[in-house]
Prior knowledge:
Blueprint: H1 3-8, H2 15-18, H3 23-36, H4 43-53, H5 55-58, E1 59-60, E2 63-67, H6 69-79, E3 88-90, E4 94-96, H7 99-114, H8 123-138, H9 141-147, H10 156-162, H11 171-187, H12 191-203
Antiparallel strand pairs: 1-2, 3-4
Helix pairs in contact: 3-4, 3-6, 3-7, 11-12
Amino acid sequence: xxDKDKIKELKPFDAKSYNPIDLDRLVIYxxxxxxxxxxxxxxxxxxxxxFNLFPKKFSLSGYLEFPDATRVEKCLWRCKSKKRQWIGxxxxxxxxxxxxxxxxxxxxxxxxxxxxxxxxxxxPSRLRRKEGILKETKDSPAYSKYVSGKAESISEADVCYLLxxxxxxxxxxxxxxxxxxxxxxxxxxxxxxxxxxNLLENRFSFLFxxxx
Length: 212
């Protein structure tokens, strides 16, 4: 069976399940799925794989039946940056799966599955989830800059990363994630995180306009 035949086996997810997830994580997930099928991790294969799995995110504007190659290539460029190192390799020679690639893929798979989970979860589970999200907030580059007295150096990219998105993420997604984060901080009475989020809200309101 050729790589082309194997890639055809990838069936698209329901758009509702992947719409809230940023492009970079979806590309990482698609890359790991291709590896599982034994497909060569070339740029071309990843472009088609991401499109087959998540067509509404990776279709060419105005030509929804075709993949947007540039969009996928930009995702891979960001993912293999020194700051992230989510994936290895280079475009001319193919990409390489690392431990970090697998971790991001597993996290993304959990997000994709989350939409079909039953709502009746136990309270302790929800509490642990919220505590985990707030811990991730405190571990973020943006928060580290804030507590070290360098809040002015917090970048737009730092904020998008904090909100599980990228500079290309829809503003609506960033807004929803910001409001959820603020809600969790209030529920768990994390005043330090609330103050930090209020600072971001004032400075980066254009990213997630909460005044609407």
